[in-house]
Design a protein that fits this description.
Structural class: mainly alpha
Strand content: under 5%
Helix content: 55-70%
Largest sheet: 2 strands, antiparallel
Distance between the termini: 105 Å
Strand order of the largest sheet: 1-2
Shape: elongated
Number of helices: 21
């Protein structure tokens, strides 16, 4: 009878005899491609039932092949501690150590590598297929729900029941596949950790990492915190050579599995491996990509994922009474999150409103945790954008309580009052989101006098009185007086000089301020004397 690894089950001896011939392994690889192509047939050319019949046969064939190969792989895995040993095959006995390599009839290493690659191809093919089918029938389910008078109610209910059953069937098959493939996943995890311990420059196989991370999302696979998995996820997350999508996939796993979640934060914080600042950097990276490609929703999803992980991280920080170390990336993160908040503001969807509320609450929690933030340009930026929202009738009344909390914290810096009265002619219009109304009225009197008096402290961009004096380098080498927070706000959006249109980074701008510290101190004294003369 013809040997067919896709339809029959064989003994270890039969498999070893067959797989020891290199051309047989090549034939398996060629057949795999054909089975894999069946998974994504065009449903417009054949009926859905016919498509499922073909794909089910392909699935059975691949699983059968995997079952055969696993007989050999399990032998190797039982000796996996010998990563650096030579293995040989003599008289169909696997893993007999040979002291004299020259007498070896067959080197098992190449066979193992080939089988290992084939098993991963099968696993990845089936994972992709099950994900595709779950998504396909979810979309069909959503579409059927939207049809009202176009379908007979009985037919509609029949379709809904069919799609729900298929979705649950594919989810069950997926879970069974992963549970069955745990031996391979465990080896993957140990193998990667082993190599990383030996060599920090070890290069991950992207497909294998993808399989590990997607497999671990299910509670049936990982029910409790596992230090070995934690170690691998840490390596993935901190390794900048790894694609950001895989690093985000690792974070998705952390946030998905609740039992893993808290233990992961505690361990990695104690060992100072992964910090909340790392997460801010990832958000900013994704945010910049979303600006360049506004039509790609994947960036938005990634940012929301990161936001949720940051919320979890911050919750742990607050419960443990840990303060965030301030750096400028936190300010950039707040700018990015608030920009996204207003990008999605006009979408009439309850889930979006909940996401927006979480964004504002996160900003509020960050300001409370990291007090240095109130002494940055957000003290101007946050009131300004929400004042503009009121002007444009874009304010969400459900979020006002959080805004009041944010502005209360910002008002601990008196610049908050200065910036508001400097630009608002009618404070009463914005009392819903402002705090310290008495203080604002008091400062309004002073700033009214300032606006009526000639002075040298007007910002060239906003034509408003300069609150925080800074110096902006010009083409002719001169230093132009400006408001520090106005320039920083502009540079956070785009690092371009507002007048010369040349590149100007925040670091370069800040260096100019440091280099001219004495001059700025002198100008601030002159400004104070001017204000005092009007009181």
């Amino acid at each position: 009878m013809e040997f067919n690894i896709f339809t029959n089950i064989y003994t270890e001896k039969e498999l070893l005899s067959y797989l020891s011939i290199e051309s047989n392994i090549s034939n398996i690889k060629k057949e795999l491609v054909g089975y894999n192509s069946n998974f994504f047939l065009n449903s417009e050319e054949i009926s859905d039932d016919e498509r499922l019949q073909i794909t089910n046969l392909s699935v059975e064939s691949l699983i059968n092949c995997s079952n055969n190969l696993s007989i050999i792989l399990s032998k190797f895995f039982s000796h996996k501690q010998r990563f650096n040993n030579k293995f040989s095959l003599i008289d169909n006995i696997l893993f007999k150590d040979e002291t004299n390599i020259e007498n070896t009839n067959y080197d098992i290493k190449k066979m193992f590598n080939d089988i290992y690659i084939i098993e991963h191809f099968i696993l990845k093919s089936l994972i992709d297929y099950y994900f595709y089918e779950i998504d396909y029938y979810n979309r069909n389910l959503d579409y059927t729900h939207t049809i009202n008078n176009q379908l007979n109610p009985l037919i509609k209910n029949g379709l809904l029941n069919k799609f729900n059953k298929l979705i649950e069937d594919f989810k069950t098959k997926y879970k069974n596949l992963i549970t069955k493939s745990l031996y391979l996943l465990n080896f993957d995890i140990e193998f990667n950790n082993y190599n990383l311990d030996l060599n920090n420059e070890f290069i991950f196989d992207k497909d294998i990492i993808y399989i590990i991370l997607n497999s671990l999302k299910f509670k049936e696979v990982i029910q409790h915190f596992n230090p070995v998995i934690n170690k691998l996820i840490y390596y993935i997350f901190v390794n900048t050579k790894i694609d950001i999508d895989l690093r985000l996939c690792a974070l998705n796993l952390i946030s998905t599995v609740e039992n893993f979640n808290k233990a992961f934060y505690e361990l990695n914080y104690k060992e100072n491996k992964i910090t909340i600042e790392d997460l801010f950097s990832l958000v900013i990276c994704e945010y910049k990509k979303s600006i360049a490609n506004p039509s790609v929703s994947e960036f938005f999803k990634n940012i929301l994922l990161l936001q949720n992980v940051i919320i979890d991280f911050l919750t742990y920080y607050n419960l443990s009474n840990i303060k965030i170390n301030f750096n400028d990336n936190i300010v950039n993160f707040i700018y990015a999150i608030l920009d996204i908040y207003f990008q999605i503001n006009k979408i009439e969807n309850q889930e979006i409103k909940i996401i927006q509320k979480k964004m504002l609450q996160l900003v509020n929690d960050l300001i409370k945790n990291c007090n240095e933030l109130i002494h940055t340009d957000i003290v101007k930026h946050i009131p300004y954008i929400f004042i503009n929202a009121i002007n444009n009738n874009e304010i969400n009344t459900d979020h006002i309580s959080i805004l009041i909390d944010i502005t209360y914290n910002l008002s601990q810096n008196k610049d908050y009052f200065y910036y508001i009265v400097n630009s608002c002619t009618n404070i009463d219009k914005y009392t819903d989101i402002l705090v310290g109304i008495n203080e604002l009225n008091k400062y309004s009197v002073i700033f009214k006098k300032i606006s009526e008096t000639d002075n040298e402290f007007l910002d060239m961009i906003t034509s408003e009185f300069i609150i925080n004096i800074a110096l902006l380098p010009m083409n002719n080498g001169e230093l132009q007086l400006c408001d520090k927070y106005t320039i920083l706000s502009a540079l956070r959006n785009k690092e371009i000089h507002p007048y010369t249109r040349k590149q100007l980074t925040i670091e370069q701008f800040n260096k100019v301020q440091i280099d001219n510290k004495d001059k700025i101190i002198e100008l601030n004294k002159k400004k104070r004397d001017f204000i005092n003369s009007l009181k």
